[in-house]
Amino acid sequence: KQEVTQIPAALSVPEGENLVLNCSFTDSAIYNLQWFRQDPGKGLTSLLLIQSSQREQTSGRLNASLDKSSGRSTLYIAASQPGDSATYLCAVRGNAGNMLTFGGGTRLMVKP
Amino acid sequence: DTGVSQNPRHKITKRGQNVTFRCDPISEHNRLYWYRQTLGQGPEFLTYFQNEAQLEKSRLLSDRFSAERPKGSFSTLEIQRTEQGDSAMYLCASSLGGRGSPGEQYFGPGTRLTVT
């Protein structure tokens, strides 16, 4: 059974810092990995999707990397802003089936 | 708006009542998913449709839960005889499936259920 863990569970940083969020998964037989953002009481917004054959994806100030063999992904946020404050969720889709298995999320607060 | 929509956004019901939620996926997406999220946790998979066929169900989906996707368009999730433990955010997602498709899932705003 796939298990996804996100560390840290919460993070508070001053505005302007570069930061890294970590995601680890137990079964390396994945089809893809998605990073999402969730604001309080809202749905999920897809940030980046990395296919199993890819090593990284970039969108604006966000960069996500994937090391399938070690079961790890990182989300790098450059020059953080107060508007980046949200919960960031990592989710993995396995090769068998189409469901996403989610981590518990990292709650990020960027202080002005 | 071409995103995933869900109705209602909020539902308060008394224990023992039945509730039904609706999800309208992105129009060209053939795959539709339901997830449940409790406070402070990541979403958990409930069930998945490809067109009108329900292909995967989690063991979380007890006999009181039923989902349909008639004609492969919108989907409904019904909970019968609600219990306080059913209180959660119910999220719907859709994706475009098929050979070579990246399979990115897009989520709706969710339906917040409170059982009193």
Describe what this molecule looks like in 3D:
The complex is a heterodimer of chains A (112) and B (116). Chain A is mainly beta. Chain A is built from no helices and eleven strands. In chain A, strands 2, 4, 5, 9, 10 and 11 form a six-stranded mixed β-sheet that branches. Chain A has a five-stranded antiparallel β-sheet with strand order 1-3-8-7-6, with no helix packed on it. Chain B is an all-beta fold and 116 residues long. Chain B is 0% helix and 48% strand. Chain B has strands at 5-7, 10-13, 19-24, 31-37, 44-50, 53-57, 65-68, 75-79, 88-95, 106-107, 111-115. In chain B, strands 2, 4, 5, 6, 9, 10 and 11 form a seven-stranded mixed β-sheet that branches. Chain B is globular. At the A-B interface, strand 4, strand 5, strand 9 and strand 10 of A face strand 4, strand 5, strand 9 and strand 10 of B.
Q: Could you outline the blueprint of secondary structure elements for this entry?
A:
The complex is a heterodimer of chains A (112) and B (116).
Chain A: E1 4-7, E2 10-14, E3 19-25, E4 30-38, E5 44-51, E6 56-59, E7 62-67, E8 72-77, E9 86-94, E10 100-102, E11 106-111
Parallel strand pairs in A: 2-11
Antiparallel strand pairs in A: 1-3, 3-8, 4-5, 4-9, 6-7, 7-8, 9-10, 9-11
Chain B: E1 5-7, E2 10-13, E3 19-24, E4 31-37, E5 44-50, E6 53-57, E7 65-68, E8 75-79, E9 88-95, E10 106-107, E11 111-115
Parallel strand pairs in B: 2-11
Antiparallel strand pairs in B: 1-3, 3-8, 4-5, 4-9, 5-6, 7-8, 9-10, 9-11
Mean pLDDT of chain A: 95
User: In whole angstroms, how far apart are the ends of chain B?
Assistant: 33 Å
Helix percentage of chain B = under 10%
Strand content of chain A: over 45%
Number of helices of chain B: 0
Number of strands of chain B: 11
String of helices and strands of chain B: EEEEEEEEEEE
Which structural class do you get from the secondary structure elements of chain A?
mainly beta
Which stretches of chain B are poorly predicted, pLDDT < 50 over at least 5 residues? none
